[in-house]
Amino acid sequence: MVARTIPVDPFDLVVFGATGDLARRKLLPALYQRLRAGQMPGEARVIGAARRDLGQDGFRALAAEALDQFVPTGDRTEAADTAFLAALHYVQVDVTGPGGWDDLRQLLGDEAERVRAFYLSVAPEFFEPICARLAELGIAPADSRIVVEKPFGHDLASARGLNAQLSRHYGEDQLFRIDHYLGKETVQNLMAIRFANALFEPLWNARHVDHVQITVAEAIGVEGRGGYYDQSGALRDMVQNHLIQLLCLTAMEPPAQFDPDAVRDEKLKVIRALDPIGPGEIARHTVRGQYRAGAGGAAYTADAANGESRTESFVAIRAHVANWRWSGTPFYLRTGKRLRARMSEIAVAFKDPPHSIFLGRAPDPHGNVLAIRLQPDEGITLSMTIKEPGPGGMRLIETPLDMTFARVMGNGDGASVRMPDAYERLIMDVIRGDQTLFMRGDEVEAAWAWTDPILAAWEAAGSAPTPYDSGGSGPEDALMLMHRDGRRWREIGL
Ligand code: NAD
To answer: What pLDDT, on the 0 to 100 scale, is given for residue 62?
Structure first.
């Protein structure tokens, strides 16, 4: 089964920060894949804008190198290489000064027929100067799109400030705030599984769901990004955006239609229904950790070059969505660095049957768990208890029903279909003007409004994060957070 590809309208995409890490690792390879698939039309242009004096040939050489590094050889063709490099243009712009903007205006010309999009792949302090300049030059008309990267603010006040700056020049319908987790196939499939099947929805509530656990584990530490990370920490860097977004998609009510505002309205209601966690709750509901040296790596404090650092590289939270659907069902969130493996998943653990007729014959723990795996090996499994095959009597085993679409959608010879990177989907959505998978300003602010009091309560408590061993599953306290409730985390890396 091969997915249909419908080309998007011709576009001009200006990438500010086109020589940076994100552009080279993600944006240029994503655009290449979309061109190769026939979705990016031949007349489309990708205009790199950055400080370096590269010229068009220099930028094409940099892009060719990025493709060599980040696009699998099997996905490359000579025809796609030629067409892609021909679509690339470059202007040298210092976004804090006057130089280069006229070149950009000239290059863009008066192409009213094309979709125009500006991708701000630069540090957040440059968002305002870029937006102001684009407005002043009149090169970002009312139907153009502005894409902004994370982090969106450092707390509620700064996120509000950023929203106010952006809204001075652009309407909310032009703003595309990226959370690349929302671009993952499995995350979108969570919505399909919930809302396109009648099977799960009747069970998707506190009566039938025991708890939900959302894990985003990384094996690497903060090496190389220590300075930035030390000002941020796991709560700001991962929970406020990615984990809350995943929680929203899991917990939200079915929207009336699959349209951007209907979906985002429902997500916003979930964030606003989260019970606040303040000074009285942090000890029972949150755990902070910081990795020690080990497993071949230095301690967090050495990676961050800050021996006194109290920044958390791990956080676990017991969250509660206080509404009719979820009252009494905890949502456990955990994320951390230098853990046993890189693994992200949402696990929805259903309650046990009310009465077991198979005492002593069922595996322990048992029960149905719907596991939505984001990485590695994107896919969805539903664990079921079945009878062990064979004549050995009525013995029960746990077995996963595999709904991994790379296999299900394969071409029948056992080969998997390629899973597109999240950025491929998201950039095409920008061109199509579809904001469903992008965060609205009020959602981002509501998420900060929930995380800010946690940060403040940690600060007021004056305690340091608990050290944990590199290569494990985080601090002991995080295990206790679950044990106290008679539950346990799923293994990281299995
Ligand atoms: P980077 O430091 O590698 O690249 C920054 C880019 O900005 C370069 O192209 C540089 O030329 C350009 N730039 C800097 N100052 C400029 C100026 N005055 N005028 C014009 N151009 C200027 O950064 P990055 O890692 O590519 O990140 C870009 C943005 O994306 C940041 O907001 C970052 O937080 C976000 N982000 C990055 C990643 C990632 O994986 N790298 C992931 C998520 C979000």
So the answer is: 98
